Amino acid sequence: MATKKNFLVTPGEPVGVIAAQSIGEPGTQMVLRSFHYAGVASSIATSGLPRLVEIVDTRKKPATPFSYVYLKGKAAKDFDAAEQIVKKISEVRVNDVIKRILENFSKGTIMIRLDEQKLEANELTAKGIASKIEKLIKAECTAQGNSLLIKTHTKAAKQTRAMAVQIGKLTVNGIENAGRAVIKQDKKTEEFYLVTNNSNIAAIMQVEGVDTSRIYTNDIFEMYRIFGIEAARNTIAKELDIVLREQGINVDERHLYILADAMSASGSIKNVGRRGLSGEKESIFARAAYEETIKHLINAAAFGERDDMKGVTENVLVGKQIGLGTGTVTLAIKKEDISKISEKKGKK
């Protein structure tokens, strides 16, 4: 972690421009490496350029959400105790325990044959699943051994098929949208923690034995909803750092925090595109330089907008010196000194 002294910069330093270059330049180098992951199983989190784009575009939901769930008390050191928490969290849907599904359109019924081994592994019973289906979709469902019979009360093939798909997606055990949880062990502390392949930390935090002070998800908007804008800001910076380091790129954390600060300074999360930071700039030329040039110039002319030319982009655009770096210094000279200089030149 950098010390306070390391964070000091020279007055007038164009930190925004340097941060943009420091992140953008290595970001372009990730293009080829990111495609290396194209054929990898979906359980691996999105990385490389696709993940970087997800973050700066502030996608509402990551392509591969996951969460880290740390444990406390006995569960942190006891594998069996941790496994009991896994069973409470791991999401089990009807599709996960189905062996075969039969749809009878003429009678308007759906017969679901359940896998006995999967039922046993998830500590479920056919009767228990039947009662949950009746409760969740209010359909008539009866258990017959390891099979379920659902009456749809319609002979329309489309509605029967729609109900079959809906039933398959129902969560019958664990926490909805939490995904499957697996136990990991920290090599340094030897404590157990869980990793889930989806994210619903609000519900996970309610489970006894979960350390709510260390729970984390790569879903920036979920961190924002639950913990606030500061947590979202830290998550943006952390996720950017993870993406770059996975590619073997080391970018100073100060650059990442400048971007994270800019995206969260308003109190909500904004992307860097034309509908976010770039599109909301006060300068007309700065907005026009990014995208939709003609639209911005026409609107500015129609409404009589004024550009004070205080930023970097607009000054570069018109060839004017920017107010950063050497541009922060104004040189002044006395009139009597000018006359002395002129006299010396005349003598030569």
List keywords for this structure.
alpha+beta; 10 strands; Alpha-Beta Plaits; 4 domains; 4-stranded antiparallel beta sheet; single chain; Gyrase A, domain 2; 348 residues; PTS-regulatory domain, PRD
What does the average pLDDT come to? 84
Question: Strand order across the biggest sheet?
Answer: 8-9-1-10
Largest sheet: 4 strands, antiparallel
The parts where pLDDT drops under 50 for at least 5 residues are 32-43
Tell me roughly what share of residues is in helical segments: 40-55%
Q: Classify the beta-strand content into a percent band.
A: 5-15%
Tell me the CATH topology of the largest domain. Answer: PTS-regulatory domain, PRD
* CATH architecture classification name of the largest domain: Orthogonal Bundle
Explain the layout of strands and helices.
Blueprint: H1 15-28, H2 31-34, H3 48-56, E1 67-70, H4 79-89, E2 92-93, E3 98-104, E4 109-114, H5 116-121, H6 126-137, E5 140-144, E6 147-151, H7 157-168, E7 171-173, E8 181-185, E9 192-196, H8 201-204, E10 216-217, H9 220-227, H10 229-246, H11 253-264, H12 284-290, H13 293-303, H14 312-317, H15 335-347
Antiparallel strand pairs: 1-9, 1-10, 2-7, 3-4, 4-6, 5-6, 8-9
Describe this structure in words.
This protein has a four-stranded antiparallel beta sheet. Strands 3-4-6-5 form a four-stranded antiparallel beta sheet. It has helices at 15-28, 31-34, 48-56, 79-89, 116-121, 126-137, 157-168, 201-204, 220-227, 229-246, 253-264, 284-290, 293-303, 312-317, 335-347; strands at 67-70, 92-93, 98-104, 109-114, 140-144, 147-151, 171-173, 181-185, 192-196, 216-217. It has 348 residues and is α+β, with helices and mostly antiparallel strands. The protein folds into four domains: 5-63 and 219-264, PTS-regulatory domain, PRD (Orthogonal Bundle), CATH 1.10.1790; 67-89 and 178-217, Alpha-Beta Plaits; 92-173, Gyrase A, domain 2, CATH 3.30.1360.140; 281-348, Orthogonal Bundle (DNA polymerase, domain 1), CATH 1.10.150.390. Helices cover 42% and strands 13% of the residues. It has 15 helices and ten strands. Residues 32-43 have low confidence and may be disordered. Helix 9 (220-227) runs antiparallel to helix 10, helix 10 runs antiparallel to helix 11 (253-264) and helix 12 (284-290) runs antiparallel to helix 13 (293-303). It is elongated and about 115 Å long. Strand 8 and strand 9 (192-196) form a beta hairpin.
